[in-house]
Amino acid sequence: QRKLLGTHPLVIMLRKTFKVAGGVVGAASIATAGAYYFGDEGTKRSLTFWCNIFPAYLHYRTYQLLDRDLGIISSEYADEQYEKLHEKYSPKVKHIVYSMRGFYLKNAQTMSTQDDFVPPAYMKWVKDTQDNVPSEFSGTEAREYVRAKMKEELNLDFDEVFELWDDVPLGVASIGQVHKAVLRSNGDVVAVKLLVPGIEERFRSDIKTLKSFCELAMPQHVSAFDEIEKQFLTEFDYVLEAKNLSLIHDAIMPTWGKLVKVPKPYPTYCSKHVLVMEYLSGVKLVDGIRAQYAKIAEASGTTMEQMEAEMIAAIKQGTFAFKTLEQSRQDRAWLQWYCAVNDYLLNPSNLWKLCYNYSALRLMYGPYELERTEPAVDLSSILELLCKVHGNEIFEHGFFNGDPHPGNVLLLKDGRLGLIDYGQVKTMTLQERIIYAKLIVALARDDREEIRRLHFEEQGVRTKRNDPEIGYLFSCFYNDRDSHDVCRGMNISNFIDFLEAADPMVKVPDAYIMASRVSIMMRGMGKAFGLQLRISKLWEDEAQAFLKSQGIKY
């Protein structure tokens, strides 16, 4: 195949294209040097992207063109080349993401929510961006930054507001970081979120660069990118986030307060760069589940790492069988039974303790505490609850968190789920909610004709050919499920490419993009633990209740 490729006219043309691209990159490198000299950070960031990422894109795109578009090379040969490219470019992309941070880091965090969004060579480090990002501050710099901003923006004295301050951050995100503190006025323990200096300018520059890249390389994503851009740019005002937090808190807590906790803000201490809110004591959902499953794995004679490696290998080979929520409940019941049998009948230490506890010696010297395996997290109930709370936000209230990635969910010590980070709150109008509720109900019923009608006529999606089958698949994938019957055995990236090749996107209405994003993130959270969620089934009751409240029988 290599010999044939060398003389093919298209390959000769591609070589010339690479020479031109090389010239462009070379010119960009010279411009980069000038930008560094003159200190223009936005230009530096843009040119760093074009000099490093665009050549990688061309390399990948060449094999995609020769394989998928033209059929000159076999898919097997293309896959071999892709694997080599993954190993070549993954370390470079990682370096770019961690050194430049900004929107590139935010994108990596989004990609980390679905195990098949990116190849394993990338996923190895992309997962770490959820909770393993180094701080841009050192020592007491964060404290002094908050001190300066509170004085500048609120005319408040740091030492009069806070009695205690922990210089070690609770967490570091793409635009800021969070510290634990204690209020001097009432002793309340609070979480203080601070905006990284200059991050808004970096994000704006990065988004402009990526939008230009999409216009050149992936025009089908431009309309969706516009809406995501609008939402992301609301994250840089913590006064607005405090208002959003109050809005969600007051809407959710009266109904769901026994099961979830949304922190309340302290508006008096909030400014554009500093957000003070109630501290929630717990661990990140993923960490909590991993810790418990690690104990179960140990009791079963294996390790969590080994279990994860086997799962990833099976997903890659297409042999992994994702489970439903009901199957997960059944597995948990079996696991509980297995652990009980292991604890009481197979553990030698517990056997003699049991004998002792049922003997007369217990009355004289007291009982022994038995060793018990900690019960497994009720993963199916947790995911079902998360989905239903977000469905309630969308349909009943019309405003919702557009960024519910796993790092924004906590397992609290009191057993509830903590829902944090409301920088991206999206609002939907009454009519938009009615249309979206109908779509969810139609998806739950798998009413194909109605799904197509809603997709094209009521939602107003426009494609080059308005192909009914592609419209159905598009609506299923973005709002409901990514199971085999929809994706046809393709991974997510290839499936999205398939949709675009079959019927190129012209317009996706802004109103529904963030709701679709919530659906995708919820499913990604499930797939991280081997579960296949069908969002329409989990949102159907909320959607129907909302339609009924509007006097609509559907």
Give structural notes.
The chain contains 24 helices and 13 strands. Mean pLDDT is 85; it is low at 1-38. It has helices at residues 2-7, 9-38, 41-69, 75-100, 102-111, 120-126, 141-154, 158-161, 199-217, 222-232, 238-256, 285-299, 304-317, 325-346, 348-357, 361-365, 379-397, 430-445, 448-458, 468-479, 484-487, 492-502, 513-527, 535-549, and strands at 162-165, 171-172, 176-183, 189-195, 260-261, 274-278, 282-284, 399-401, 409-412, 417-419, 425-427, 462-463, 505-507. The protein is α+β, with helices and mostly antiparallel strands and 554 residues long.
Query: Which value, in Å, is the CA radius of gyration?
Result: 26 Å
Task: Using the alpha-carbon principal axes, give the shape.
Answer: globular
Count of alpha and pi helical runs:
24
- Which percent range describes the beta-strand content? 5-15%
Taking the sheet with the most strands, its summary is:
5 strands, antiparallel
- Cα(first) to Cα(last) distance is 57 Å
Taking pLDDT < 50 over at least 5 consecutive residues as the criterion, the unreliable ranges are 1-38
Overall pLDDT: 85
User: Would you tell me the structural class of the helices and strands?
Assistant: alpha+beta
Helix content: 55-70%
The count of β-strands is: 13
